[in-house]
From TrEMBL:
Domain annotation HTH crp-type: ranges: 153-218
Keyword DNA-binding tagged: yes
Domain Cyclic nucleotide-binding: 12-109
Pfam family, one: cNMP_binding
A GO biological process held by the record: regulation of DNA-templated transcription
GO molecular function: DNA binding
Keywords associated with the record: DNA-binding, Transcription, Transcription regulation
PROSITE patterns tied to this protein: CNMP_BINDING_3, HTH_CRP_2
Gene3D superfamilies per the UniProt record, alphabetical: Jelly Rolls
Protein name, UniProt field: Crp/Fnr family transcriptional regulator
Superkingdom field: Bacteria
Coiled coil: none
Length: 218
């Protein structure tokens, strides 16, 4: 089982002391839930009054079409938020499905308690609201990165753009992807077999190397 991230290392809680964090978690009606791999956390059309934080494991954002086909839009890993875009809307209804990609622990926070200052006007409320808007901005950049990746003309271009994004995020030439080969093909909107062949060609040409979930940039 994955080790659970410490609350003090969660970006949403940046700048909040451990003492105030204890008060905050009580004030914003926080609670934990665990999910098994493949279990639905939020279903499309569900009301989303809570923001989720992945404490361990990972969560996939999926979009289903009318024929039942599912597309991996994005993924959320340890310490990251999900559902916040919908929870802060006037009508907090999800337009996607969130599913546990592995055994996953989630901390839920009442969105209304974050975006509205409590009657005590606690200083940490202003801090968590500021943190959340910052993370919303980062999430927008993440979606723009996804658009840039899948807009590449061919599979190699998409792979290189994805690996480049990971390298910049992880600040390393040894980059780890949280996606399996099947999931990566879905994320890039390409055929898995064709993607696997292209990865082998790129390795033969000395552009990259790879071992399971790790890519090495040559």
């Amino acid at each position: 089982m994955e080790k659970e991230i410490e609350y003090k290392n969660i970006p949403l809680f940046e700048g909040i002391s451990e003492e105030n964090l204890t008060k905050l978690l009580y004030c914003i009606n926080s609670f934990k839930r665990e999910y098994e791999k493949g279990e639905t956390i939020i279903l499309e059309k569900d009301k989303v009054p809570y923001i989720g934080i992945v404490l361990s494991g990972s969560v996939h954002m999926l979009k289903n079409d009318i024929w039942g086909n599912s597309t991996l839009l994005s993924y959320v890993t340890e310490g990251e938020l999900f559902g916040e875009n919908f929870a802060v809307m006037k009508i907090p209804e999800s337009s996607v499905t969130f599913q546990a990609a592995s055994h996953t622990k989630v901390l839920f926070l009442a969105a209304s308690k974050i975006i509205h200052t409590c009657e005590n006007a606690c200083s940490f409320h202003a801090q968590i609201a500021e943190n959340m808007f910052n993370l919303l901005g980062q999430k927008s950049i993440s979606f723009m990165n996804k658009i840039e990746i899948i807009s590449k003309e061919n599979i190699r271009g998409k792979l290189l753009a994805y690996i480049s994004m990971l390298a910049q995020q992880q600040e390393s030439k040894y980059v780890i992807t949280p996606l399996s080969r099947t999931q990566l093909a879905d994320y890039l909107s390409v055929n898995r077999s064709a993607m696997t062949r292209e990865l082998s060609k790129m390795r033969d040409e000395g552009i990259i190397d790879f071992d399971r979930d790790t890519f090495i940039i040559k």
